Amino acid sequence: MADVETARDGAVLTITLNRPDSYNALTTGMHAALREALAEAAAEEIRAVVLTGAGKGFCAGQDLTEFRGLDHSVGEHLEATYHPNVRAIRALEKPVIAAVNGVAAGAGVSLACVCDIRIAADSAAFVPGFIGIGLVPDSGGSYFLARLLGPARAFSWMTSNRRLTAAEAHAWGLVDEVVEQDGLAARAAELAADYAARPTRGIAMTKQLFDHAQNATLDEQLAKEAELQDEATKTADFTEGVTAFLEKRPPSFTGR
Ligand code: T3D
Hints:
Helices cover 46% and strands 16% of the residues. It is an alpha/beta fold. Helix 3 packs across helix 4 (141-149). The radius of gyration is 19 Å and the shape is globular. Ligand T3D binds at residues 22-23, 25, 60-65, 74, 77-78, 82, 103, 105-107, 127, 129-130, 132-133, 135, 138.
């Protein structure tokens, strides 16, 4: 079994981190495998992606056994391994759903937060992790958590190392939905299939817009909206959406 597995169901690609004995802690090799899986996800026929973990954990962050006798620059390691995948997920022109099946810690929390949507099993938990070993949030953690939770809550949580339950994460807005452990995979598949039937290019451009809004002025954002709306009107799904509305029938979107 590979450390990162992919499975295709129609237009949905599920990527599974697969080192269950260590709660899918990330090794250098896993980053490369994840990069390959994300390249597979970029194919036009894939219209939604699920990212999950095998076994009891979602992802325990950096595999700490790789820190034994640390003899490399961690900053360079981050740039070479974590960062390309963070950028690849944000660049995917389709929704990425994190199905958090168990504990997420350290860069595992960051990884979930890089995704567009998070659903969690009721048994899942979120552990800052970094500060527990004297580190700072990385792999996008400080960026996404500040935006998802607000800087004050993100700071106090990340520096407390408090284990957050799935219910608490939901109350904080960190996850969109909490489902029973046994129903998580089915719910993730259902949600992904639903997304895969929507206007994929419109969703991709919505993702791009909200990313752009993080650091834009109002004028810059208005310009970006106008630019992407122009592009959206050139899609087949726009034509289909308007036609279906006028013909009083449900639309059939192709993702083009
Ligand atoms: O290199 C760079 O570029 C820097 C990047 C840094 C990014 C980071 O992510 S730093 C933060 C790294 N992560 C952590 O510090 C989390 C460490 N793990 C934990 O705090 C806990 O294990 C958990 C909260 C994740 C889960 O706790 P619990 O009690 O539910 O389970 P457990 O028994 O501690 O762990 C289960 C197994 O997974 C266990 O193995 P064993 O004893 O049954 O053989 C444990 O050793 C293993 N495991 C968990 N986390 C890691 C790990 N093995 C290696 N690395 C881990 N991060």
